[in-house]
Amino acid sequence: MTGTDPRQVACSMLDALDAGGGESTNLDRLFSDTFNNTLRRMDRRDRNFVYALVYGTLRTRGRLDWVIAHFSKIPVRKIEGPVLNILRTAFYQVFYMDRVPEAAAVNTAVENTRKIAGNHVVRFVNGLLRTALRSPDRMWWPQRENDPFLWLSVDQSFPVWIIRRWAERFGFDETVSLCRYHNEIPPLTIRTNTLKAAPGDLAAALKPYARRVARGTHAPESLRVYGLKPSVDALEPFRSGLFHVQDEAAQLVSHVTAPMPGELVMDACAGLGGKTAHLAQLMNNTGGIVAVDNHATRREELIQQMRRLGITIVTPLAHDLDEGPVPGRDASFDRVQIDAPCSATGVIRRNPDVRWSIRETDFVRMGKRQLRFLKNVSASVKIGGVLVYAVCSIEPEETTDVRDAFLKQHPEFGVKPFLGTEGMFPGALPPDGVACCLPHVHGTDGFYIAAFTRKA
C-alpha cells in the first residue's frame, strides 16, 4: 500500500518493518528512505503525523494487539500483516491521538483496507473497529496481582519473554521502570562540535528555534533540546557544522577511548561517522583516523558529515570485519574503537521496533559475531595501545560474556582503567575498565563499554 496519505505511508512503513530484510529496514534507515521518496513531498503537519503514528504504534503495539485479540474472531497471528497494521494504527489514533476524530480514524482504516483486500476483509475491519469502540466496557485487562508478567507485557507493550529475562537480572520493579523509560519520548540530545563552537555559544544559537535548551547531564559537550520547531537538517547551526545529533551514552564511548592529538586511531564499524567525528574533536583535528565500514552508502554519508563538521583527518576504508583483520594494518594504531553491531536493546526508547524484531536466540549469535569482530580489530592495536569495545545493548551475551571471552582468548590484552572521565556518569564508570549505562538509571541510552590495553 503506497501513496502520500499519511496513514497509508505509516502503514507501509510498518509493513516494511514486519517484512524484515536486514539493515535496510531498521527504523532510522526506513525513515530516511521514506523521507527521500515520499515524506519530503508532504507538508510538515502530515510528516509529523506519520512520525507520531509509526513511533506511537510501535510503542503501544502489544496493548493494541490485546484489544484486537479481544474483539476479533480471528487470532491476531492469522490476520494478514497489512490488515493488522491498519487496525493497529486506527486504534492508536483513537486511544492516543486526541486531535483525531474517531470517525476519521475508522473511516480511513476501512477505505485503506478496501485498497488492498476484498469485501469480506473490509467488513471484518469495519465490524471489529466499530464493535470495539461501541463496547469499551467489554474489555478485560490483565491485573498485576494475578499475572505480573502478562500485566506488564500488555501495560507497557513488551514481549513477555523480554520482561521475564530482565526481571531475572534486575528484579520486577526495576524492570517496570526500564519498560516505562523505554516508552518515553526522548529529548533531542546533541554533541557540540567543539572544533567550531563552545556548548554555551551553541545553546544561545539554538534558543530561537526551541522551547528550551539545557546542558546535558553527563557528557561535557552535550545539550538537550526541547520543542525544536524546524527539523534538525533545516537549522543553520546544523548546516554550519556546529553540532551532531548523539546521545550522551554514545558520547561517553569516545571519552573512554580518549585519543590524543597527533595519534593514529581506527574507528571500526564507523557507520555514519558520529563517533568518528567525536574522536576527531578530541584530537583537535590533528593526527589521523581510519574509519572502517563495509557499506558504500554509509561511507559516502560519513564523508559528507566530515565535510559539514570541518573535519579533515578522517580516511574511510572499505572492509568487512566478518572476513578478518584489516589487511596491512597489524599493530598500526595507537587506539582502536569498535562500536559493534548488536541487538540494540539499550536504545529501544529511540528504536521501538527493536522489541518486536529481536529474538532471544539472537543474543548468543550476535555475541559470537561481536567477539569475532573484536578479535579481528585487536590485531591492529600497537603494543601499549588501547582497544575500546562498545555496544548499545544491555544483554550479558553481548557485553560481559564478550569481554570475558576476549580476555581469556587474548592474554596479550589486559583491563584498562578509565582515565579522563571524572565527573561523567556517576556510578557507571567503576575502575575495572567497564562502563554500563542503564536507560532508567542514567536517563540515557543503554550502553556497555569495555577498555583494554595491549601488553605484548
Task: Pick out its properties.
alpha/beta; N-utilizing Substance Protein B Homolog, Chain A; Alpha-Beta Plaits; 8-stranded mixed beta sheet; 4-stranded antiparallel beta sheet; globular
Write a structural description.
- The chain is an alpha/beta fold.
- It has 4 domains: 6-138, N-utilizing Substance Protein B Homolog, Chain A (Orthogonal Bundle); 148-182, no CATH class; 188-245, Sun protein, domain 3 (Alpha-Beta Plaits, 2-Layer Sandwich), CATH 3.30.70; 248-454, Vaccinia Virus protein VP39 (Rossmann fold, 3-Layer(aba) Sandwich), CATH 3.40.50.150.
- The protein contains 19 helices and 12 strands.
- It has helices at 6-19, 27-37, 44-59, 61-71, 81-96, 102-114, 119-134, 148-156, 160-170, 172-182, 199-206, 236-239, 248-257, 274-282, 296-309, 354-357, 361-378, 400-409, 439-442; strands spanning 188-192, 212-215, 222-226, 243-245, 264-268, 288-293, 314-318, 333-339, 381-391, 413-415, 434-437, 447-454.
- The strands form 2 sheets. Strands 5, 6, 7, 8, 9, 10, 11 and 12 form an 8-stranded mixed beta sheet that branches. A 4-stranded antiparallel beta sheet has the order 2-3-1-4, with helices on one face.
- It is globular.
- The mean pLDDT is 93.
The fourth-level CATH homologous superfamily of the largest domain is Vaccinia Virus protein VP39
Can you name the CATH architecture of the largest domain?
3-Layer(aba) Sandwich
- Helix proportion range: 40-55%
Overall spatial form: globular
Count every helix, treating DSSP H or I runs of 4 or more residues as helices.
19
